[in-house]
Design goal:
26% strand, Rossmann fold, alpha/beta, globular, twelve-stranded mixed beta sheet
């Protein structure tokens, strides 16, 4: 089934070329079904790229979804045309009046700031609190995962001496969880961060469960509230060339950014990336939508509590 997207969203034409079935709002109105309502709070600087990455993954379920994009009033993006933001994004003040089947909060390139020093900290923590009563299940990614764990559970973050950068093997710790349905004994996950959360802090909180981790990149997935919240420290949504673009962007500009590990074929950037995470990324997002959103959300979306 298709994703229901705003008319003229740039991702539509990109994904059609990949044979991914998407539907604009005009056509969707002719279908008499209740689509799942998904909202994305996109904090990444390159909005269009992140939109496309997430829509690509959400498109693989047999369920129709209506995808909306949220923006913050307290922050003005510098790398996305204002026309794009005005056309496709709505303020939290507008979207908060509704209830949602799923919410995705992306990472943001601000992890070296103290949480309270982030210009939109007050607004985003208000969104975190709102989600607990207005959303069936929420995915927090990278910085958003650290921020939500800090806000709800006082889990600290720690600065790394060297950027955690590359694609690392992760091990599911609770194999019978629906989020891992169809997974192998390990899966790969891209990471791109300067800070980390640690097992010893999470283990002190009874409401948190570490469900996947790596001996190289540490804690990668945490679950709370029986799957109403997931916290991912990496970027399963990344496209094959994202780490390459980040590496080339920062090369020579920073001294704490190594070549991404386990990424380039034969560790030679000129040979391009060795893509090892996409199948599990697609499966994980399908599992989240099916088992933690569709199977749990009420038909009357206003009954979400």
């Amino acid at each position: 089934m298709p994703l229901r997207l705003p008319d003229r969203l740039p991702a539509i034409e990109i994904l059609k070329k990949e044979n991914i079935f998407v539907m604009n709002e005009s056509r969707a109105h002719t279908q008499m079904v209740r689509p799942l309502k998904i909202v994305v709070l996109n904090l990444m600087p390159l909005k269009i790229t992140t939109e496309t990455d997430l829509i690509r993954l959400l498109s693989n379920t047999p369920l129709q979804m209506e995808v909306n994009f949220m923006k913050l009033k307290s922050h003005t993006p510098k790398n996305t045309p204002i026309e794009h933001m005005m056309m496709f994004y709505k303020d939290f003040d507008i979207l908060r009046r509704q209830k949602w089947d799923g919410l995705i909060v992306t990472g943001a390139p601000i992890e070296l700031l103290e949480f309270e020093d982030v210009e939109y900290w007050q607004e985003i923590t208000e969104i975190f609190d709102w989600a607990r009563t207005h959303v069936t299940s929420t995915l927090y990614i990278c910085w958003a995962a650290q921020a939500a764990l800090y806000h709800f559970y006082n889990i600290p973050k720690y600065r790394l001496q060297e950027k955690m950068f590359g694609v690392f093997r992760q091990y599911p710790l609770v194999h019978d969880l629906p989020i891992f349905r169809g997974f192998d004994d390990f899966f790969m996950m891209p990471h791109s961060r300067h800070t980390e959360i640690r097992r010893q802090d999470i283990d002190q909180v009874a409401d948190l469960k570490i469900i996947a981790e790596s001996p190289d990149s540490g804690v990668s997935m945490v679950m709370a509230r029986r799957g109403r919240e997931f916290f991912f420290t990496g970027h399963l949504e990344y496209a094959p060339d994202t780490l390459d673009k980040e590496y080339k962007r920062d090369m020579g500009k920073r001294d704490d950014v190594p070549m991404p590990k386990n990424y380039y074929l034969d560790d030679e950037p000129d040979k391009g990336p060795w893509v090892s995470w996409r199948s599990h990324a697609n499966l994980l997002f399908c599992n989240w939508i099916n088992y933690y959103v569709y199977q749990e959300t009420p038909y009357n979306i206003n009954e979400i509590v």
